[in-house]
Amino acid sequence: MMQATTINRESAAGANPASDAQNLRGAGNDMEMIKAASSLTRDLNAANPVIYWADFVASALTGYAALFAAIFAPSIWLCLLAAALSILALYRAGSFIHELTHIKRRDVPGFHLAWNIMAGIPLMIPSFMYEGVHNQHHMPKRYGTVQDPEYLPLALMKPYTVPLFVLVAALGPIGLLIRYALLAPLSLAIPPLRRIVVERYSGLVINPEFRRRMPEGEERSRWIALEIATSIWAIGLLTLTATGIIPLAAFLTFLGIASGTMVINQVRTLVAHLWENDGGEMNATQQYLDSVNVPPPATLPALWAPVGLRYHALHHLLPGVPYHNLGEAHRRLIGALPDASSYHGANYAGLPGLVKQLVGSTFKRGQ
Fold first, then answer.
1. Which three-class secondary structure state does DSSP give residue 352?
2. Angle made by CA atoms 170, 173, 174, in degrees to the nearest 5
């Protein structure tokens, strides 16, 4: 998130690419899987506006109601309980930013604007932070390379990078306040600073080498409008807190809950891929096998990987399928493809095993 980690790719220098070449390199394109994925899911590409609106609005309202409950709770235990509910609900609401990058505005009219008003601006993650960035993660020639804003070879890096990767996310809300309350206004008067802010601090990315281009045309107009609104919100929040209108405890509770959503998302990101690519280009099957599905019967992924994120590998195979249809797409492919199909190779049982695999890989390859 917003250059969410300062971990450098050079941390993977201890890995031996020759002897530790990942198994993914041996995978050829599984054309049977690719053709089946396309033919079996053609009727699942349409977004259902009712589902989008109901799910998002319910998540956002629940999150903010629980936030106020945490602020005014009469005991620490009720505060913690309400805060936990708020974190999960606002995390789910915020996760719709991923859907915004894939659905067309005409498919769910007004949804982009509503999301920004109800989640993007209050949580200081307006949609321009992801739109125009996430699509590069899906480009076949960029996935897993130094040009991919959402990829780091974590499995090949030093063991300390895993906890550091998560801990840095906890500071995300502070970084966002600095970006919108301080850097954004200053950058209007200092052109060199503006370029730095746009290139380095205007994307929810994990690759510190990624540099974003300056926005143009309609993208620039939307960007500026959302950035101004978010800056006003951030400045207002700090001003009202400094003047005592918003109690410091309430402000810190908000920051804590926002931090919680970012930590969960960062943990989810840890297991969204196997992170075993050393920078070379990968074919479609290799990209799929480097990604992760955590399908049923596992139940907890519905909380830590909501809005279809539990089907991350399937999403890379079928990026046009909306989140609410990914479960059905998965069931069809599981039923149609033989056990020898590559499709089964990206399905995992749950979070603990994936984290253990990643940490074990860092100790083997990143020493």
1. helix
2. 95
Domain residue ranges of the chain, discontinuous segments joined by +: 23-365
pLDDT tens readout for residues 63-106: 999 999 999 999 999 999 999 999 999 999 999 999 999 999 99
Task: Please determine, for residue 130, whether its predicted confidence score (pLDDT) is greater than 50.
Answer: yes
Q: Which of 284, 253, 232 is nearest to 69 (CA)?
A: 253
Spatial separation of the C-alpha atoms in residues 365 and 66, rounded to whole Å: 43
> CA-CA distances (angstroms) from residue 237 to 44, 180, 197, 258?
42, 11, 21, 14
What lies within 8 Å, CB to CB, of 56 at 6+ separation is: 93, 96, 111, 114, 115, 118, 119
Angstrom distance (rounded) from CA 149 to CA 139: 11
Mind listing the pLDDT tens digit for each residue in 258-290?
999 999 999 999 999 999 998 899 999 999 999
Burial of 42 (0-12, 13-18, 19+ CB in 10 A): exposed
Per-residue pLDDT band at 354 (split at 50, 70, 90): very high
Tell how many helices (H) and how many strands (E) occur in the chain: 16, 0
Token pair belonging to 347: 């399905």
Instruction: Supply the DSSP symbol for 11.
Output: G
Burial class of residue 157 (count of CB atoms within 10 Å of its CB; 0-12, 13-18, 19+): buried
| Residue 28 DSSP symbol | P
**pLDDT confidence band for 190 (50 / 70 / 90):** very high
Where is 98: in which H helix or E strand?
Answer: helix 76-100
The pTM of the full predicted model, rounded to 2 decimals, is 0.91
CA distances from 85 to 80, 299, 346 (A): 9, 17, 30
The CA distance from 144 to 194, in Å, is 28
